[in-house]
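Below is a filled-in request sheet from our internal design queue. Each sheet records the structural input a requester submitted and the sequence that came back. We keep these sheets so that new team members can see what a complete request looks like end to end.

REQUESTER: design group, bay 2
PRIORITY: normal
MODE: inverse folding
CHAIN LENGTH: 116
BACKBONE (tokenized):
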């Protein structure tokens, strides 16, 4: 099995429970690891033998652009879309991070990870 990774894709988006988070927005980061078999792409230099990571990135960008209260929900939506649109993905792991979370104390970011 092989993996295609999209690492540290950064977006400005409006996710959160609090009204100001949905008005001002904040910085979010998405990293994704997709398991697949890309023997054909490796041997024949053929995009059809792998996962088009540019198309996956656009899917992530679209989902991040749709507000959610929770980053857990955002992460699951991204997984669901990838599984629906990219059947060659055999397994995936996603990490969604929210920078400057609205909690007391000095915290750079909070993250969730889902392995599917």
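RETURNED SEQUENCE:
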């Amino acid at each position: 099995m092989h993996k295609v990774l999209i690492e540290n894709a950064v977006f400005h988006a409006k996710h959160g429970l609090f009204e100001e988070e949905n008005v001002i927005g904040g910085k979010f980061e998405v990293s994704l690891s997709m398991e697949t078999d890309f023997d054909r792409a490796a041997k024949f230099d053929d995009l059809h033998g792998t996962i088009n990571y540019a198309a996956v990135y656009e899917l992530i960008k679209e989902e991040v652009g749709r507000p959610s209260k929770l980053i857990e929900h955002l992460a699951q939506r991204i997984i669901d879309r990838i599984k629906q649109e990219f059947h060659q993905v055999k397994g995936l792991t996603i990490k969604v991070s929210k920078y400057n979370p609205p909690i007391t104390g000095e915290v750079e970011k909070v993250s969730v990870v889902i392995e599917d």
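SHEET NOTES:
- The helical segments are 19-24, 39-44, 53-64, 71-85.
- The radius of gyration is 16 Å.
FILED BY: M.R.
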